[in-house]
Every structure is written in structure tokens, then in C-alpha cells.
Amino acid sequence: MMEAASSGANSAALIGKFVVIGAGLIGGSLAKGLRLRGQCREVIAVVRRAETAEAALAEGVADRAVLDIADVAAELGANDVVFIAVPTLAVEPVLAQLKSLLSPTVVITDGASVKGSVAAAARRVYGCLPPQLVLGHPIAGSEKSGVTAANPDLYVDHRVILTPTDETSPEHLQTVRNMWLSVGAEVLDMPIDEHDQVLGATSHLPHAIAYSLVDTLAHDIDSPNIFRYAAGGFRDFTRIASSDPVMWHDIMKANSAQVVRSLDQFMDNLARMRQAIADGDGEYLLDTFTRAKKARDKYTQAAVKSSKS
Ligand SMILES: NC(=O)C1=CN([C@@H]2O[C@H](COP(=O)(O)OP(=O)(O)OC[C@H]3O[C@@H](n4cnc5c(N)ncnc54)[C@H](O)[C@@H]3O)[C@@H](O)[C@H]2O)C=CC1
Ligand SMILES: O=C(O)C(=O)Cc1ccc(O)cc1
């Protein structure tokens, strides 16, 4: 076990011990945000490698770092929170370990990008959705990953979606809501299915398209050094293809039905555009581009307004 210098945590903190399993971009940012704002008495990082433990302490992400949740589980109780921030398909083995180790008074929450698969994993492990489990998803992040990318202000003015069910404990839900509010996020609730449908279309589909586009240009188009001639539009459109491959492998598998549905709609529309370009159908192209520009301008104006309010 390794320890850092004190973060100056206050005794009236919102949360007792905050345990983050997977101290990367998402877990590390929440841990650092809570720690620097004095919103928890202690942050404990559970990591897989000694180097990550050292980095978590050096980056100010945690007060203590351990290699196994079993090292700290017995000291956790009411008002303590365990945040699971590992790739989506790695949540199930983590839950299987937590089941035998944690008191039901401890809040368990997560940040995985797909909620239906995590809920199904919890049902397989616990036989139900345990009341202490509050599923969530911060709609904030970037193409960066790892503990060195942790940013205490990552969640300021960003939305966090919680997906409580009738089985969720209202007290545990409130603790998780207050936790996110305390790092500057806007919190909203949504049914699990709606979450996966909306995020399948707005986040998972664009990532699939960006990866495919870059791969097409890199491997299928017969022109060496093609990226040398790329302009800003290419950079804007493809930033997200630099995201972590394991994370996105897990998301596509975990939300495959919704992503396939969105991909089918997109491929139909793309095929229609291909035909219009082949036919020289300027009316179709102008109509489509004008409609899309209007929708995108409306979205960016609304995003600017909500970040100012
Ligand atoms: N990157 C982003 O922009 C966003 C990611 N998410 C979700 O948050 C979760 C974490 O993503 P990031 O923080 O971006 O990834 P990351 O790669 O920065 O961090 C994940 C951490 O989990 C560790 N890890 C992996 N498997 C583990 C296991 N079995 N046990 C313990 N640790 C394990 C990795 O070593 C790494 O330190 C994922 O489920 C992702 O889908 C949610 C919102 C945004
Ligand atoms: O890099 C970006 O712009 C993202 O889209 C970040 C992101 C990745 C995964 C999520 O589940 C939510 C947000």
C-alpha cells in the first residue's frame, strides 16, 4: 500500500472514503475533483500495476493506492462510495469480486458508457439489481486515457446521466447525485434503454464512423502519405479515432443492437447521398446539407447558451 501527502480533506466532507477502481481518465478525474474540492475524507485508488499506484499518488488523484479491493473492503461502510471506472466489459468481474467483499451500506456506482449491459451483468452476479448499486455515465471525456489524463475540472458544466430503477436505494441515489453535483456536473435521470438508444446514436455511432473513415484512408485508399494533405476538417472529424481501442471494443459489443440500428439508418442515408452525387442530383445535396447545417448550428448555439447559464 502506498500513501500520499494529505489533501487537506475536511471532516464535514460529503463522502467518507471514495474508492476508485480503475484510476484512468474518468475515475482519476472524479477522484481528483472530489479530493481537491475537499468533498471526501480520503481517496483510495485500486489499480492493477505498481507504476499506476505511484502515478495516482504523484498526480494528486489519490491519498492511498492499493492493488486489490480486498485490501480495503473491510474498512468501508455507510457514506463510503466505490466508483467502478474500468472498460465496460470489465465491470462484471469487478462486481463479482465486490459482491463477497462489500457491506450493502457502501454505495457502488460506475461510469461505463453502456448501461443495459452493466445492469445485466449486475443481475447475473447478484441475482437482482442490488439497492446499493447506482448506475451512471458522465457525458464528458476525450480521446485521452490513463491516470496522467485525470482532470479535476473535467465534469464542470457537463451532464451526468444516472439510470436508477425501482430497485435502487433512494439514499444511495442521492449520495451519487450529490457527488456529481459537487464536482460541477449537471445530473439527470434516464431509463436504461433510453440511455443506450440515445448514446448509441450520438456517441457510439460517430466513433464507429470515425474509426472506419480513418482506417479506410490509412489502408484502403492507394496513396501513400495521404494524411499529409489532410486539412482541418479531417482533424475535427477524426479526433475521436484516437480514443482507446479496448474501451471502444467493449462499448460496441455491449451496445451492439443499438449501434447496429443507428449504423443501418446512417448507411441508408449515406447510400442515398452516394446516389445523389453519382447522379449529379444537386437539389438533394443542397437540401441535405442545408438541413444538416441548420441542425448542427442549432445544437452548437444551444450548447454555448447552456454553458453560459
Ligand atoms: N474516455 C471517455 O471519454 C469516457 C469513458 N467512459 C467510460 O469510463 C470507463 C473508463 O474509461 P477511461 O477512464 O476513459 O479509461 P482509461 O483507460 O483512462 O482508464 C481505465 C482504467 O481501468 C484500468 N482497468 C482496466 N481493466 C481493469 C480491471 N479489470 N480492474 C481494474 N482496473 C482495470 C486500466 O488500467 C485503466 O487505468 C469506461 O467504461 C468508459 O467506457 C465514460 C465517459 C467518457
Ligand atoms: O472524446 C469525445 O468527444 C467523447 O465523445 C468522449 C466520450 C467518450 C465516451 C463516452 O461514453 C462519453 C464521452
Would you give an account of this structure?
Helix 3 links the parallel strand 5 and strand 6. 36% of the residues are buried. The mean pLDDT is 95. Helices cover 50% and strands 13% of the residues. Strands 1-4-3-2-5-6-7 form a seven-stranded mixed β-sheet, covered by helices on one side. The longest helix has 29 residues. The chain has two domains: 189 residues, NAD(P)-binding Rossmann-like Domain (Rossmann fold), CATH 3.40.50.720; 114 residues, 6-phosphogluconate dehydrogenase C-terminal fold, CATH 1.10.3660. It is elongated. With 309 residues, it is of the alpha/beta class. The structure holds 1,4-dihydronicotinamide adenine dinucleotide and 3-(4-hydroxy-phenyl)pyruvic acid (ENO). 1,4-dihydronicotinamide adenine dinucleotide binds next to helix 1, strand 8 and helix 8.
Compact overview of the structure:
50% of the residues lie in helices and 13% in strands. The protein is of the alpha/beta class and 309 residues long.
Strand content is 5-15%
Mean pLDDT: 95
* Bound small-molecule species: 1,4-dihydronicotinamide adenine dinucleotide, 3-(4-hydroxy-phenyl)pyruvic acid
Q: Can you tell me the CATH topology of the largest domain?
A: Rossmann fold
Shape, please? elongated
What is the CATH class of the largest domain?
A: Alpha Beta
Cross-sheet strand order for the largest sheet: 1-4-3-2-5-6-7
Reported for the largest beta sheet, the result is: 7 strands, mixed
Number of helices: 10
Uncertain spans: none
CATH superfamily of the largest domain: NAD(P)-binding Rossmann-like Domain
Number of domains: 2
Termini separation:
44 Å
User: What is the element string, with H for helices and E for strands?
Assistant: EEHEHEEHEHEEEHEHHHHH
The tally of strands reads 10
Which structural class do you get from the secondary structure elements? alpha/beta
The Cα radius of gyration reads 21 Å
Please state the second-level CATH architecture of the largest domain: 3-Layer(aba) Sandwich
GO molecular function: NAD+ binding; prephenate dehydrogenase (NAD+) activity; prephenate dehydrogenase (NADP+) activity
Pathway: Amino-acid biosynthesis; L-tyrosine biosynthesis; (4-hydroxyphenyl)pyruvate from prephenate (NAD(+) route): step 1/1
Keywords: Amino-acid biosynthesis, Aromatic amino acid biosynthesis, Membrane, NAD, Oxidoreductase, Transmembrane, Transmembrane helix, Tyrosine biosynthesis
Organism: Gilvimarinus xylanilyticus
